[in-house]
Design goal:
Layout lengths: L26 E6 L13 E4 L2 H4 L9 H11 L4 E6 L5 H9 L14 H5 L5 E3 L6 H14 L2 E5 L6 H8 L7 E4 L9 H16 L31 H7 L4 E4 L3 E4 L13 H17 L10 H20 L3 E8 L6 H5 L5 E7 L24
Parallel strand pairs: 1-3, 1-4, 4-5, 5-6
Antiparallel strand pairs: 2-3, 7-8, 9-10
Length: 374
């Protein structure tokens, strides 16, 4: 071995790493725009819109694209992935064109190609004015694949009873139904929901639900919905019980409702679903560095500390109630470890929205006891 004479520096790379949250505020919008700029919005291909207001000059006057982007711009200035689909006369043909096909990534399925082609993953999905039941079903499927949420209108519903019945056809945790429409026309409520969801993600976080945040640009509702803050036995309460998110007027117009279409009670709240999605994706992406490294005790320790450090930060930020990660020897046999397989457990408690506040008001004469004390 040759003689070493001098100072030599090694750079061992070990220890916990930082886990960055995935971007949750990217909108995936499916829309028609017959006279939109075909270079900026090619048919059935995902197009990136970094400046929503500037893009309005290229959308043309027909179709759903212009009104949807304008409604989104009223709420925020998010990144939007647009898939422009063909506008047809026949409703069935429109459903087919909007839903598209997985084989060629057309229609709604075009959102699945966005990350590879544009470098962003849409997670707030909608097709304002086009989201009939068949399209809503496809949006739910694509939302599940993207770890996102689809915001959907109760299509064809003219009453509270219709909306409640319509809700019975959905069961995915990645779907949230909204009724009624605004006076802005078909698709306006959903477009504003998409923009508001992106706005909430930016200013508050993914752990806050869509509910009870003022919506910009609404002047009225297409169908009146009676609402009383202190009485749930109202049409608005009936919708929430379905559950369908409704719209109420209270210091401006607001979406009112926290719940998804999930048939699993643990994911009834929108915030629970989105928390699960963020943890799943951010932790997986944050551990890419560990894949294919030598499987040693040190590596296991680094993985666990990486995850727990992220949990501590999210708890301190108020985005989680609590969370913990650990290694369970019972799940990691010698044969599995020797075969390069490692199982790590973690659990967490998401922030539930305070949906039900009870105040006990009591009348008493006890405060008269000191009446004459001066």
């Amino acid at each position: 071995m040759p003689i070493r004479h001098g100072i030599f520096v090694n750079e061992p790379v070990d220890g916990a790493r930082n886990i960055a949250d995935v971007a949750t505020g990217v909108i995936g919008l499916v829309a028609t725009g017959p006279d939109a700029d075909a270079d900026l919005f090619p048919l059935n291909q995902p197009a990136l819109v970094a400046d929503v207001r500037s893009a309005l000059s290229a959308v043309g006057d027909d179709g759903t694209l212009g009104p949807a982007l304008a409604a989104i711009a009223d709420q925020a200035s998010p990144i939007v992935v647009v898939v422009r689909v063909e506008e047809t006369v026949d409703p069935q043909d429109q459903d087919d064109a909007t839903a598209g096909a997985l084989a060629d990534y057309s229609g709604v399925y075009g959102l699945l190609a966005a990350e590879q082609q544009l470098g962003v993953r849409p997670r707030i999905l909608g097709a304002p004015g086009l989201d009939t039941a068949p399209v809503a079903s496809v949006l739910g499927t694509v939302a599940r694949n993207l770890n996102g949420m689809a915001y959907l209108y109760c299509d064809g519903c003219d009453s509270v009873e219709d909306a409640v019945t319509y809700r019975g056809g959905f069961s995915q945790r990645e779907q949230m139904l909204i009724w009624p429409e605004t006076s802005g026309g078909a698709g306006d409520a959903i477009a504003r929901a998409l923009g508001l969801r992106a706005h909430i993600d930016e200013v508050t976080g993914w752990h806050k639900t869509l509910s009870n945040v003022a919506v910009t640009g609404i002047t009225g509702l297409a169908h009146p919905v009676f609402f009383d803050l202190q009485d749930s036995s109202t049409p608005a309460g009936l919708l929430n019980d379905a559950p369908v998110t409704t719209m109420v007027r209270m210091n401006g117009f607001r979406f009112w409702g926290n719940r998804t279409c999930s048939d699993e009670p643990l994911f009834a709240f929108e915030s629970s679903v989105r928390t699960a999605q963020v943890l799943r994706d951010s932790i997986a992406r944050g551990l890419v560095w560990a894949v294919d490294k030598p499987l040693t005790k040190g590596l296991v320790k680094d993985i666990i500390e990486t995850i727990n450090a992220d949990f501590r930060e999210k708890v301190a930020q108020g985005r989680l109630i609590g969370a913990s990660c650990w290694y369970d020897p019972a799940l990691n046999s010698e044969n599995d470890l020797a075969g390069g397989k490692l199982v790590i457990d973690y659990d967490y408690t998401p922030c539930a929205p305070m949906e039900d506040l009870t105040l006990n008001q009591r009348i008493t004469d006890k405060y008269y006891t000191s009446f004459s004390a001066g």
